[in-house]
Amino acid sequence: MIQATDLAKVYGAKTAVDGVTFTVQPGRVTGFLGPNGAGKSTTMRMIMGLDAPTRGTVTVNGSPYPKHRAPLREIGALLEARAVHPGRTAYSHLSALAATHGIPSQRVNEVIEMTGLGAVAKKKVKGFSLGMGQRLGIAAALLGDPQVVVLDEPVNGLDPEGVVWVRNLVKYLASEGRTVFLSSHLMSEMAQTADHLIVIGRGRILADAPIDDVISSQGKARTRLRTDRPEEFSRLLARSGVTIQAPEHEVLEVGGLDPRTIAQTALDHQILVYELTPLQASLEEAYMQLTKDDVEYRSHDASHHEEPPASSPSGALGTKAAHETQEATR
Ligand SMILES: Nc1ncnc2c1ncn2[C@@H]1O[C@H](COP(=O)(O)OP(=O)(O)OP(=O)(O)O)[C@@H](O)[C@H]1O
């Protein structure tokens, strides 16, 4: 278990972590999300005793990291920018680490096997791809067979097979009752991997809840439907609090109305509807909603997260923006 209490880190004028309190529980995968510069890496470094908190405490299984006699057996971590001597082989790197921490050399072979590094274990690390480097970092994290595992962006640089491997590995570690805490910018991956989420923005906790609760509390449920008269039907459905988008030909996505009301409206007006599907909000939508005020480095070209401009010909229903324009002029 990891417990942070009023944990803060200030670098000069910059407050990187602003008094966070959270618990990472064993037996489940906890995802750590936040925009660039939100304070994730700083928090993870404080957990690992690599940065001293300016205020507050963080403990691993009840004690601060530096107080553990055999820290590698307690907690294993993959953090950004791991220093591995490039002239060493994966095997010699892990063996040296094992020797310094009193870990039997047999364990080196086990983690090499677990992380799929068998074929390259005797090769020099300087020739490693990003993905192989990540696997080596994960091997080092698991070397002490720790109860707590902290992984900062573990799927960074991995190919699809590697991404699935990390997903299965962390789920397996959690199923064994270990505490697993991982960060990732890949929302779809996080959605498939984490049971619980801690979301941080500008050094503060924005959410700390089971992943399904985070999605349902932020995301807006919608219904997707197909009809051969989308423009007429959308006029019939339009009212205050209802959003309507037309992402494809003969397709509408309606927010703010339940499927039964939509079906009843279609029946009342004899409109053919040949698909009616409730849509789950995605983690990405929930995350964007949750962090919208806490993004430190906002790119000006965030177009893939914004509604496309109303580009449809006048009168035709193209986008939510187009629809709202129609509503406003009605
Ligand atoms: N050693 C340092 N000196 C000064 N400022 C720092 C230092 N380390 C981090 N910061 C600042 O603290 C803030 C939090 O950084 P941190 O690396 O923890 O964020 P992050 O959530 O891990 O971001 P990313 O997703 O980009 O990795 C940022 O504004 C960063 O510039």
Strand content: 25-35%
Q: How many beta-strand segments?
A: 13
Any idea what the shape is?
A: elongated
Structural class: alpha/beta
Distance between the termini: 57 Å
The percentage helix is: 25-40%
Protein name: ABC transporter ATP-binding protein
GO molecular function: ATP binding
Family: Belongs to the ABC transporter superfamily.
Pfam families: ABC_tran
Short recap of the structure:
The chain is an alpha/beta fold.
Notes on the protein architecture:
With 330 residues, the protein is α/β, with parallel strands linked by helices. It contains 12 helices and 13 strands. 34% of the residues lie in helices and 25% in strands. The protein has a 6-stranded mixed β-sheet, with helices on both faces. The protein is elongated, with a radius of gyration of 25 Å. The termini are far apart. Bound molecules: adenosine-5'-triphosphate (ATP). Keywords: ATP-binding, Nucleotide-binding, Transport. Pfam families: ABC_tran. InterPro entries: AAA+_ATPase, ABC_transporter-like_ATP-bd, P-loop_NTPase. It comes from Sinomonas terrae.
Summarize this structure as a short list of keywords or feature phrases.
P-loop_NTPase; binds adenosine-5'-triphosphate; alpha/beta; disordered C terminus; ABC_transporter-like_ATP-bd; four-stranded antiparallel sheet; nucleotide-binding; transport; AAA+_ATPase; elongated
